[in-house]
Amino acid sequence: MSDQNQARVLRVDASMRHAGSQSRALTDQVIERLRRDRPDLHVQVRDLAEPGLRFIDEAWISANFTDPAERNDDQKAALARSDALVEELRQADTIVIGAPVYNYTIPAALKAWIDMVVRARETFRYTEDGPEGFLKGKRAIIVFTSGGTDLGGDNDFASDYLRYILGFIGITDIEFINAGGLAFGAEERVAAASETIETLAA
Length: 202
Ligand SMILES: Cc1cc2nc3c(=O)[nH]c(=O)nc-3n(C[C@H](O)[C@H](O)[C@H](O)COP(=O)(O)O)c2cc1C
Description:
Number of strands: 7
Number of domains: 1
CATH architecture: 3-Layer(aba) Sandwich
Oligomer: single chain
Structural class: alpha/beta
Helix content: 25-40%
CATH topology: Rossmann fold
Low-confidence stretches: none
Number of helices: 6
Bound molecules: flavin mononucleotide
CATH class: Alpha Beta
Mean pLDDT: 96
Strand order of the largest sheet: 2-1-3-6-7
Strand content: 15-25%
Distance between the termini: 24 Å
CATH superfamily: Flavodoxin domain
């Protein structure tokens, strides 16, 4: 049975490797840090390297832009996976994302996940005053890893995008754990990121 007061984390791993993944090791540590203050922490894992993640396609787009009351069974089926991913996000108080830089931006799998959860009517809407994100009151912790791209540097096309798109759906409390530039000294940069993780508030 789900406990209304239980702290809930959605952990999204976007590294396409398991062995040797620095971002997974650091997201592990983020979870451990949060669990220290909330031993009852419930963690939902969404591992984007697992098979099953799909791109949005023609059927998805057509179904998504059909009024929910008018959707036929095929259209409902086309959105089922996306509905489940949105629900996972809704349920979470905190979203922890392991985000390596691939080709100067986020991994394609993370973009595919974003396309599944950024949905008109479900996670945002347009108003006369502009877009409104529905996922308010949540916190995001993003572990940023890279070989050489510095967090916030000229060739970092990942972090601003993540900040923007999460904000677009209402998630504006965002902290980055910086493990960028690992090719220039992984040990010390991972150690610095670990120290930052230890300072995270529960
Ligand atoms: C396909 C691919 C593309 C990459 N592109 C970049 C890049 O553009 N800039 C960069 O600094 N590092 C790049 N890297 C290095 C990764 O960001 C770095 O190894 C990071 O630690 C990967 O995260 P992980 O250890 O969790 O797998 C790339 C790695 C891969 C596998």
